[in-house]
């Protein structure tokens, strides 16, 4: 059984998906981390983020690994742990520019389907229920008010000891959602057969329980 969790930035998808996977004994796959790893590689190698061909060829040359550890998922780029680096504001600000290229998405989809082909997965992203795993047994579109999403990100940044500005974070999230929703290929959309879950005012545990309930139906 596969579970697809999509939704806008900062809705808590990865936390919820990770806990759901743990509860069910499934593999968690964070597709946003894959786009982030490619963006980081492009920034390191000086590849223009508007060069679709170069980005697609870069994706062929790099290896992206996801590894589940007791502390959570770790992300590897060419076997180097980049879990923290891919969350850097420079990557967050630019990842949508990389993700909008059709050739990049096509290759990512192949990689993601391969990962899902091996076992039961909880996969989170923007196009999982609509394109990557259209046959997923459970589809959730997880959202929350923009204010709450920005506030969650803000607290997360402070907890990690980073400087953060709430208004800037809110703007960045809105801009990223707009780029993700406006792109021509696989835009951010709720699948027709997805359950919409608005997590505003809900605890993480409540959201996870709700998803597990959906799996029983
Ligand atoms: O999930 P996260 O916020 O880490 O995703 C980062 C970015 O990666 C998104 O804003 C989007 O541009 C891209 N993405 C995507 N399709 C996915 C997952 C992420 O386009 N399935």
Give the SSE map.
Elements (H helix, E strand, L loop, with lengths): L2 E4 L6 H12 L2 E4 H15 L6 H10 L2 E6 L2 E6 L2 E2 L7 H11 L2 H17 L2 E5 L2 H5 L5 E6 L2 H14 L6 H17 L12 E4 L5 H13 L1
Parallel strand pairs: 1-6, 1-7, 2-6, 7-8
Antiparallel strand pairs: 3-4, 4-5
Helix pairs in contact: 1-9, 2-4, 3-5, 4-8, 7-8
This protein binds cytidine-5'-monophosphate.
- Global structural class: alpha/beta
Mass-distribution shape:
globular
Whole-Å distance between the termini?
Answer: 13 Å
Q: Which stretches of 5+ consecutive residues score pLDDT under 50?
A: none
CATH superfamily: P-loop containing nucleotide triphosphate hydrolases
Describe the structure.
The protein has 9 helices and 8 strands. It has about 220 residues and is α/β, with parallel strands linked by helices. It has a single domain, classed as Rossmann fold (3-Layer(aba) Sandwich). The strands form 2 sheets. It has a 5-stranded parallel beta sheet, sandwiched between helices. The chain has a 3-stranded antiparallel beta sheet with strand order 3-4-5. Helix 1 crosses helix 9 and helix 7 packs across helix 8. The model has no long low-confidence stretch (mean pLDDT about 95). Cytidine-5'-monophosphate (C5P) binds near residues 9, 95, 99, 128 and 180.
């Amino acid at each position: 059984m596969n579970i697809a969790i999509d939704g806008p930035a900062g809705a808590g998808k990865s936390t919820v998906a990770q806990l759901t996977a743990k509860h069910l004994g499934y593999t968690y796959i964070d597709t946003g981390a894959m786009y982030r790893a490619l963006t980081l590689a492009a920034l390191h190698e000086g590849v223009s983020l508007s060069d679709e061909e170069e980005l697609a060829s870069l994706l062929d040359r790099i290896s992206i690994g996801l590894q589940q550890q007791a502390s959570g998922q770790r992300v590897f780029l060419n076997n180097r742990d980049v879990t923290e680096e891919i969350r850097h504001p420079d990557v967050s600000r630019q990842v949508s520019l990389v993700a909008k290229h059709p050739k990049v998405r096509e290759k990512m989809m192949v990689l993601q389907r391969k990962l899902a082909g091996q076992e039961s997965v909880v996969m989170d992203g923007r196009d999982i229920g609509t394109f990557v795993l259209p046959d997923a047994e459970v589809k959730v579109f997880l959202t929350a008010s923009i204010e709450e999403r920005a506030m969650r990100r803000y607290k997360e940044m402070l907890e990690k000891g980073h400087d953060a500005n709430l208004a800037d974070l809110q703007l960045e999230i809105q801009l990223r959602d707009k780029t993700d929703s406006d792109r021509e290929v696989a835009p951010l959309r709720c699948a027709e057969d997805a359950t919409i879950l608005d997590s505003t005012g809900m605890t993480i545990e409540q959201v996870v329980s709700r998803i597990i309930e959906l799996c029983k139906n």
